[in-house]
Automatic annotation (TrEMBL):
<feature type="transmembrane region" description="Helical">
    <location>
        <begin position="23"/>
        <end position="48"/>
    </location>
</feature>
<protein>
    <recommendedName>
        <fullName>DUF3592 domain-containing protein</fullName>
    </recommendedName>
</protein>
<keyword id="KW-0812">Transmembrane</keyword>
<keyword id="KW-0472">Membrane</keyword>
<keyword id="KW-1133">Transmembrane helix</keyword>
C-alpha cells in the first residue's frame, strides 16, 4: 500500500468512537431524559395540588393573608406582571378581604 492509498482512504478503516465515549454519551442522554421527566412530573404534581387552592379575587375569604410575589422593578416602576399582582392585592385589601399589606424587597432595582 503506497502513500496515495492512505491519502485517498483506500485501505484505511474509519475511526469508530470508543466504547467509553459512547457510554458517556448514552449516560448523558439518559440523564437528560430522566431530568426532564422529573421536571415534568413535578410541574404536573404542583398544578394538580394547587388548582383547588387558587380562587378568584371575589372568592377570597375575609381575613386571609396574601403573599404577592414580584419581579424586577425598573426605574422605580413595577413591570406589567407585578403591577397586576399589586393591583389585585390592593383591591383585596380595600375590600377588607386580606390583612394589612407589607412589602418586602430583595435585591436592587438595577
Amino acid at each position: 500500500m503506497g502513500a496515495k492509498s492512505a491519502i485517498y482512504g483506500v485501505g484505511v478503516r474509519p475511526r469508530r468512537s470508543t466504547s467509553a465515549g459512547r457510554l458517556l454519551w448514552r449516560l448523558g442522554l439518559l440523564g437528560l431524559i430522566v431530568g426532564e421527566g422529573i421536571v415534568a412530573a413535578s410541574a404536573t404534581w404542583v398544578y394538580f395540588a394547587a388548582r383547588s387552592r387558587v380562587v378568584a379575587p371575589q372568592d377570597v375569604p375575609a381575613g386571609s393573608t396574601a403573599l404577592v410575589l414580584g419581579s424586577k422593578v425598573s426605574d422605580g416602576e413595577p413591570g406589567e406582571y407585578v403591577r397586576a399582582r399589586l393591583d389585585t392585592a390592593v383591591a383585596l385589601y380595600r375590600s377588607g378581604r386580606i390583612a394589612p399589606l407589607g412589602v418586602v424587597e430583595f435585591g436592587s432595582a438595577g
